[in-house]
C-alpha cells in the first residue's frame, strides 16, 4: 500500500450510521478526541486545507489531534500555518531542535512583535499551544514532522477587516515548502478565504491560494474542508480588535463530524468539519504566559516588515 493510501488511516475507527459521507469522532490513544475514521475521497490526497477563523480554541486543537494521528500511523507529516513566511526557519528550529532556550527567544520575539502590531487570532494562545504540541510530536517521531509559515505578502497599511486581493505569492511559497518537505501528507491551516478550491467565489479574492496550488499540482488531489460550528466566537480585527461572534446556527449535528461533499460546494470546499460550539482564543505572550486581553491594532510598521492583518475570514 502506498503512503498516500496509508494516510487514510490517520483518522481512527467507526463510520457513523448509514451515511457514508459522515464520519463520527472516536478516540485514538495519545492523540486527544478529535480523531476520525477515513473519510471518502482521501485515499490519494497529499494536501488537506483547513479553512478556519483565526483566534479559536477548537480549530488548532483539531489540527493538533489530526497531526498526532497521522504521525502515529507512520506517515511523514508537514504542517503549514498562516504566519509570516520568514518565520519558517525559526518555527522549524523550535519544533525540531533540542537547543530550546535560544530558539524560544527568537520565536518569542517574532511572535510578540506580530501580536503587538497585528493582534489578530494568528497569535492566539491556542495557536501557541499548537506549536508547542508539534514540538512534542517531533520529539516522539524524529524526522517525521516539519513545519513552515507561508504568508509571503508584504504589509499593506489598511483598516481592520480589509483583505489583500492576490494569493499568488502565498500559493507559490506554500507549494515550494510542501515540495521541499518530502512529506507524505500536508495539513495547511489558513483563513477560509484562502482555502477555497474554486476561483471567483469571493469578489475581492478571485483566485484563492488553495485554488492556485491545486492547479499547479493537480496530482496532489487536494482536499479543502471548511470549519463550521453552531455557536462561533473568535478573536479577530474587524472594525475593532476583539472577540467576534457569528449568529448561532439552528443545527442538531454531532460535535466532531466530518462531511465529504459529493461535489464541490459553490463556495469552493470539498468537505466540512463541524466542531459544535467554537470559542475564542485571545492573543498571547508566550514569554510571560499571559493573554493580551486589551490588544489593539497599533500603527502599521514599514511596508514589507510584517504580514498583513488578515483576520475574520
Could you characterize the architecture of this molecule?
The chain is built from 7 helices and 13 strands. The protein is globular, with a radius of gyration of 18 Å. The strands form 3 sheets. Strands 2-1-10-11-7-3-6-4-5 form a 9-stranded mixed beta sheet, with helices on both faces. The termini are far apart. Mean pLDDT is 79; it is low at 1-29, 157-162 and 299-313. The chain is of the alpha/beta class and 313 residues long. Helix content is 27%, strand content 21%. The protein has helices at 3-6, 58-72, 88-96, 100-117, 125-140, 168-181, 209-216, and strands at residues 22-26, 35-36, 47-52, 77-84, 145-151, 185-191, 223-228, 232-238, 240-246, 257-260, 271-274, 284-285, 290-291.
N-C termini distance: 38 Å
Helix content: 25-40%
Structural class: alpha/beta
Please tally the helical runs, counting DSSP H or I stretches of 4 or more residues. 7
**What can be said about the biggest beta sheet?**
9 strands, mixed
The best one-word shape is globular
Q: Tell me which oligomeric state these chains represent.
A: single chain
What is the alpha-carbon Rg in Å? 18 Å
Give the strand line-up of the largest sheet: 2-1-10-11-7-3-6-4-5
Helix-strand pattern, N to C? HEEEHEHHHEHEHEEEEEEE
- Average pLDDT value? 79
Beta-strand percent range: 15-25%
Q: Let me know the number of strands.
A: 13
Contiguous uncertain segments of 5+ residues: 1-29, 157-162, 299-313
